[in-house]
Amino acid sequence: MKDLTCIVCPRGCRLHVDDDMNVTGNFCPRGAQYAISELTNPVRTITTSIRVTNRPYTLVSVKTTNPIPKQKIFDVMKEIDKIAVEAPVRIGQIVKTNILGLDSDIVITKNID
Ligand code: SF4
Questions:
Q1: What is the distance between the alpha carbons of residues 47 and 14, in angstroms, rounded to a whole number?
Q2: CA 13, 63, 105, 99: dihedral to nearest 10 degrees?
Q3: Atom number of ligand 1 nearest to Cα 32
């Protein structure tokens, strides 16, 4: 048995999953999907920053385009740490495709002129 909070929307339902993976406490079906996924293959979207080489002390925010398996987060962070860009950069600009073969790109989330 496991209790967790659904993070799919701001309502934040308290979910209960029994030993047979039956989910209760969810206001909508997305909560059940979230609970099962969280217990069988937890994933997270990574948001972080990378260096802008031609702007002193400047970072630009980036994120993964698809959620990453939780156990791969540190490996992905190490790869992201190797990436640097030159301004100007634009929201939506891809700076790394298919990172570590995980079917997720790394994309800029802030404009810098
Ligand atoms: S179960 Fe549905 S309503 Fe409740 S927090 Fe999750 S997504 Fe929102």
A1: 25
A2: -100
A3: 1
Bridge partners, 5 (sequence order): 14
List the domain range (segments joined by +) for residue 6: 2-40
Give dist(CA 72, CA 30) in Å, integer: 24
Q: Do 92 and 59 fall into the same domain? A: yes
Is the CB of 26 within 6 Å of ligand 1? yes
Report pTM: 0.82
Count of domains for the chain: 2
Question: Strand, coil or helix: what is 55?
Answer: coil
Q: Residues 44-53: pLDDT tens digits?
A: 999 999 999 9
Nearest CA among 54, 45, 52, 60 for reference residue 111: 60
The reply to whether 54 and 104 lie within a common domain is yes
**Cα–Cα dist 19/110, whole Å:** 44
Q: How far, in Å, is the centroid of ligand 1 from the Cα of 71?
A: 25
| Residue 50: count of CB within 10 angstroms of its CB | 20
In this structure, are residues 92 and 106 in contact, taking their beta carbons and an 8 Å threshold?
no
